């Protein structure tokens, strides 16, 4: 089918609700609402009069991206999706499904610049971050902490837990809360100097530009949100958030205990909002993260930090171990002495 580029040179993949806002790639922008009241992803085609559009709905698993397309972006949609322009033309991309979550892959072939080809592929999948699979003119600055040896396993583990939190078709069924995650690392400095890093819960994973998670306060405790579309750490999923609170029990001078739980949307909300008014705890009982700091024997300027996280779903024990190992590796890198000059 052919679809005119519109008087403004863009098409809109309309869906609701969005899970991201802002630029995804140099030709795809997520907009919560435009002047016409549309909610969706804006696809820019400024140098052409029309776009050749193909739509492929897949019932099975994710298909492989075809090599002919030079620009490929994947996004998540909920309930259905329609591709349209500002001239009123529109075509169904994903059939309307009130409870359905889908992944849509937008593929562009610009071998004929006057009439580019746009392929829209979709398949059932739980919500996830927009991903630039191929071809973007945007210059990306990657934090070196995303390249640490522990990063790949830690981020993959976070993504698996995030899928469970979002509750999509590929989510695991969570059972007994008797899983334990455990990891440790040697850090420079004395225990009293390092206590502050463990008094509260922190997510130290940076995004592509070096920024970490955004924090708020709700339900009598700090709440951590992932709000950047490109952020690689999906521990809270797209829809949820992390809730934490300092444990009131007495503990040793260098033991820091924090309650942990995951928040998910309540009452049909699309995602946990910033004030958590439409949120509930995912796990029946709060999990407990204990950080113990002990001086390394014979090394007064070094401390062993050990994390023990109890009360987790057994399905998460290995993944949270990998995630905590990555978090401690980031902290060790943050505290590592740097050469001047």
Present the secondary structure layout.
Blueprint: E1 2-4, E2 10-14, E3 22-25, E4 28-31, E5 40-44, E6 50-57, E7 71-78, E8 81-85, E9 90-94, E10 101-109, E11 117-124, E12 131-134, H1 151-166, E13 179-188, H2 191-194, E14 214-218, E15 221-225, E16 241-246, E17 255-265, E18 279-281, E19 287-296, E20 299-312, H3 317-335
Parallel strand pairs: 6-11
Antiparallel strand pairs: 1-6, 2-5, 2-8, 3-4, 4-5, 7-10, 7-12, 8-9, 10-11, 13-20, 14-15, 15-16, 16-17, 17-18, 17-19, 19-20
Helix pairs in contact: 1-3
Structural write-up:
The protein is built from three helices and 20 strands. It is mainly beta and 341 residues long. The strands form three sheets. Strands 13, 14, 15, 16, 17, 18, 19 and 20 form an eight-stranded antiparallel beta sheet that branches. Helix 1 packs across helix 3. The mean pLDDT is 79.
Summary tags:
341 residues; mainly beta
Outline type: elongated
Number of strands: 20
β content, as a range? 35-45%
CA distance, first residue to last residue: 59 Å
Poorly predicted sequence stretches spanning 5 or more consecutive residues: none
Task: Please state the structural category.
Answer: mainly beta
